[in-house]
Amino acid sequence: MQTICIFLGVIVSCFAATTHRPPHTTHAHTNHTTHAHTNLPIEPWEIHTIIFQFQPLTFHLLAMTPTDRATKTSKCFIATISDSEHAQIHTDAGMRAVELRILAALGSATAVTDVSTLDTRDVTTCTSHTIFLPLLRYFTITV
To answer: Where does the signal peptide begin and end (predicted)?
Structure first.
């Protein structure tokens, strides 16, 4: 019986030593400003990726977009590059300059209605980056 009382006393002492009451303040908080909490809407993530690939056999730069979630379509932009751009396409600065020009021209690209008019090597490169082949749209961009 004495062992149980000592054991309970030790437990109570340990519990009392680890818990305490938070301090209680009785003064008024007159110097604090009130904060307006607004519930901002949570926006979904928006990520858009364009893959650029130089086709060395056709001397075209291809810009491919991933499949759009809403329309389930992918786009492949086939751009011709100038001789000066071709000379610098294998450098970081040259590739970046051509990519920026292609990005600026995406809105004025011409839709291709007959895929048989395109080089098969460009078409093969474009189809290797999409899973919805019937919904792949081709566009051309000229210098």
So the answer is: 1-16
**Mean predicted lDDT score pLDDT of the chain:** 80
Q: Which residue has the higher pLDDT, 35 or 43?
A: 43
The string over 116-137, giving b where at least 16 C-beta atoms fall within 10 Å of a residue's C-beta and e elsewhere, is eebeeebbebbeebbeeeeebe
- The region that residue 91 occupies, defined by phi over 0 for left and psi between -120 and 50 for alpha, beta otherwise, is beta
Residue listed under structure tokens 């292609």: 102
pTM of the predicted model as reported, rounded to 2 decimal places: 0.65
Q: Residue 24 is encoded by which pair of tokens?
A: 């209680």
pLDDT value for 65: 87
Specify the range with the lowest mean pLDDT, choosing from 12-26, 58-72, 110-124.
Answer: 12-26
Which residues are within 8 A (CB) of 51 and not within 5 positions of it... i.e. 6 or more apart?
A: 63, 64, 65, 66, 129
8 Å CB contact between 112 and 85: no
**Residue 40 Cα to chain centre, angstroms:** 22
**H/E stretch holding 19:** none
How many percent of the chain have pLDDT more than 70?
A: 69
